Amino acid sequence: MFFRNLTLFRFPDGITSASRSLTNSWPNTFFVPCGPLELQTRGWVSPYGRGEEMFSVEHCNQALLALGGEDKLLPTAIINQHIAEKVEELEKQRGRPVGTRERRKLKDDALTELLPRALARPSRLAGYLDIANGWVVVDSSSRKAAEGFISALRIALGSFPAGPGARENRHGRS
């Protein structure tokens, strides 16, 4: 596995308990596919791929991790079309226009009806945790996705004080 894009985060020295906490906290944060009424889910998966049971590759205070995700694809145009059909049907039955409050309820009903049939798009985000040197490296050019990785790490560990990586000058100092 090669990293193509890097987003760096720093965390303070002295967090050596993080590597021990990783293996103890995995069962609570495994990836579970989306349920019928969920828009997205996130959880830790094996960096080795599907069907593997190791959820981190750890060696000398360093760990390779992978965050799996699933997002339901439900375009707004589909929802709006479904609502328009229901509104038209109700207006024919009642002989009067449908109000705003009723439209909101129709939208909620449409989501409840359409979500179980929506397609789910899988995703995977790799990261490298260097506990000895205080770095988290996430394979993403998207800052938002990288911060999602750090948030999942915070949830798994209970607390993880990581912030954006500082740029070093040519003398190796921040």
Q: How far is the N terminus from the C terminus? A: 29 Å
Mean pLDDT across every amino acid position: 81
Give the DSSP E fraction (strand runs of 2 or more residues). Answer: 15-25%
Radius of gyration: 22 Å
The helix-and-strand class reads alpha+beta
Tally of helical runs: 4
Total number of distinct structural domains: 2
Specify the overall morphology: elongated
Q: In sequence order, what are the helices and strands, one letter per element?
A: EHEEEHHEEHE
What share of residues is helical? 25-40%
Biggest sheet details:
7 strands, antiparallel
Low-pLDDT segments, ≥5 res: 167-174
How many strands in all? 7
Features:
4 helices, alpha+beta, 33% helix, 7 strands
Model description:
This protein is an alpha+beta fold and 174 residues long. The protein folds into two domains: 7-73 and 122-164, no CATH class; 76-115, no CATH class. It has helices at 17-25, 76-94, 100-114, 143-157, and strands at 7-10, 40-45, 57-58, 62-73, 119-130, 135-138, 163-164. Helix 2 crosses helix 3 (100-114). The longest helix is centred in the middle third of the chain and has 19 residues, at 76-94. The chain starts with 6 loop residues before the first strand and ends in a 10-residue tail after the last strand. Mean pLDDT is 81; it is low at 167-174.
